[in-house]
Amino acid sequence: MKRTVARAVLALSLGLAATVALPQGTTPMFGGVLDDTNDPLDIRSLVLERSTANGTQIFLFTGAVVAVRGDMEIRADSLRITVPEGGANSFDRLEATGNVVVTSGTQRASAARAVMDMARQTITMTGNVRLSDGANEMNGETFTVDLETGTWRLEAPATGRVQTVITPGTRN
């Protein structure tokens, strides 16, 4: 996957183009993890625990977790990464929980929980989701991205309403 990520409101832009002032064809900020790059994934935490289940390795980072790759940063209370048997340095699922904040440049996304499922090719953020790119913002409860198509959906099931604030650029 090329650097399709880290652009608009989670950068979040995700394909909505100028309608929401977000660049077309972009996906969520997790692109720093998804991009084809030689940049290492640098994860720091207070504790790292490794376990296995049915041949799958599970790495659980807890306590003030900070994960950085390129210009993307994920902060969370915990980060759980699963690596399938024979997966070497590639993971099939990344789950960040507790005070999750993803930043890349001017783009920021926050939620209670974020899950990147490589088998399903999806990213799902839940719990007080806030996406911003500079002064542009979107708020809801559940944010789901299809990584294959670039389509995404922001919902607020409890209230039935999402909020979007688009700030026009300055004119010459």
Radius of gyration: 16 Å
Principal-axis shape equals globular
CATH superfamily: Lipopolysaccharide (LPS) transport protein A like domain
Q: Total strand count, please? A: 10
Oligomer status: single chain
In N-to-C order, the SSE pattern is HEEEEEEEEEE
| Helix count from the secondary structure assignment | 1
What's the architecture in CATH terms? Sandwich
How large a portion of the residues is in β-strands, by DSSP E? over 45%
Short description:
By secondary structure, the protein is mainly β. It has one domain (17-165): Lipopolysaccharide (LPS) transport protein A like domain (lipopolysaccharide transport protein A fold), CATH 2.60.450.10.
How would you sum up this structure, described in words?
The protein has a single domain (17-165), classed as Sandwich (lipopolysaccharide transport protein A fold), CATH 2.60.450. Strands 1, 2, 3, 4, 5, 6, 7, 8, 9 and 10 form a 10-stranded antiparallel β-sheet that branches. A hairpin with a 2-residue loop joins strand 3 and strand 4. The chain has 1 helix and 10 strands. The longest helix is centred in the N-terminal third of the chain and has 4 residues, at 31-34. The protein is an all-beta fold. It starts with 30 loop residues before the first helix and ends in a 7-residue tail after the last strand.
